[in-house]
Write a structure and sequence with these properties.
Blueprint (H helix, E strand, L loop, with lengths): L3 H20 L1 H34 L3 E4 L6 E4 H36 L2 H19 L6 H55 L15 H67 L12
Antiparallel strand pairs: 1-2
């Protein structure tokens, strides 16, 4: 028999659903979070392309290293090729993140249309009436009404609630690390883009013993400078790779793995609602 406490609880739950449906609080919060993440992803993508542009400029630069008297010439591209490959993969992950967030925003817009809102409110009120007054309809009709109501509620709020849970994970676990990685990646991009070109100098002066010694000394200083510059460039590239790795982890977790997990959970929930055998109260139970 349906107790008074049970009826009051169901009535409060129905009232909350109706209020959330019409106010759109969950939808607004979820959409705001998605928009914020899209903006962060767009900024990250722009930084990645800027870094790629800086590397493209530097890749044709040749560096001469001969501190021990043995000359070696290599291109900066040989040092920066690995990070260039990383940037391409990183850009794809960021684009996938933007796409995922955009799709979720569209789904929220669809779920919050006037027609869906009316159907959710109507089915919720119908289900509430049938719980309070089961004698108004036979058991089969009541079961269909209850399941329809639950399915509409899941469709209406599931995406918004998943984004709110996603936001909670972001704020409490990921936000600080993601912000630090993005700021550091911006600095690395600016430093690599602003790195001075390192070129081999040529000397057309008349050959003499003194000039030859001077040229050797100049070349030695230049090679040592190039070595230091190359080591700095390697460090900047290594830092950029580390930052991109951290950002990839955060984007994959927030915009790919968690939505897939929520989608799987939603499918399981819908299947459970459809197959669950609801126990209804007999029409003569009026308490």
């Amino acid at each position: 028999m349906a107790s008074t406490k049970y009826k009051i609880s169901i009535s409060i739950a129905a009232l909350i659903i109706v209020i959330l449906t019409f106010t759109g609080w969950c939808d607004n919060k979820g959409s705001e979070y998605a928009a914020e993440q899209i903006e962060i992803a767009a900024i990250t993508f722009a930084v990645a392309r800027s870094l790629n542009a800086g590397i493209s400029i530097a890749q044709g630069t040749e560096v001469t290293l001969s501190p021990a008297g043995v000359g070696t010439t290599l291109t900066v591209g040989e040092v920066l090729d690995p990070i260039n490959d990383m940037i391409e993969r990183f850009s794809l992950v960021v684009l996938a993140a933007i796409t995922s967030l955009g799709i979720q925003q569209i789904l929220i817009s669809i779920a919050s249309t006037t027609l869906i809102n009316l159907l959710v409110v109507l089915s919720t009120l119908t289900g509430l009436v049938l719980i309070l007054k089961p004698q108004l309809a036979p058991q089969g009709v009541r079961i269909v009404a209850y399941k329809t109501c639950l399915l509409l509620i899941v469709f209406r709020f599931f995406i918004a609630l998943s984004l709110l849970l996603n936001q909670a994970v972001y704020i409490n676990i990921i936000e600080s690390n993601q912000s630090e990685s993005l700021a550091s990646l911006k600095i690395s991009a600016e430093e690599i883009k602003a790195s001075p070109s390192i070129q081999v100098k040529t000397d057309d002066q008349e050959r003499s013993f003194l000039n030859d010694m001077k040229n050797k000394w100049d070349n030695f200083q230049e090679s040592m400078s190039n070595t230091l510059d190359l080591e700095k460039l390697k460090d900047k590239a290594s830092n950029a790779v580390d930052n991109m790795t951290d950002l990839i982890i955060s984007f994959v977790l927030l915009t790919l793995l968690m939505p897939i997990a929520f989608l799987w959970l939603g499918i399981k929930l819908v299947g459970y609602i459809i197959t669950y055998k609801i126990i209804t109260y007999k029409p003569n139970d009026n308490s």
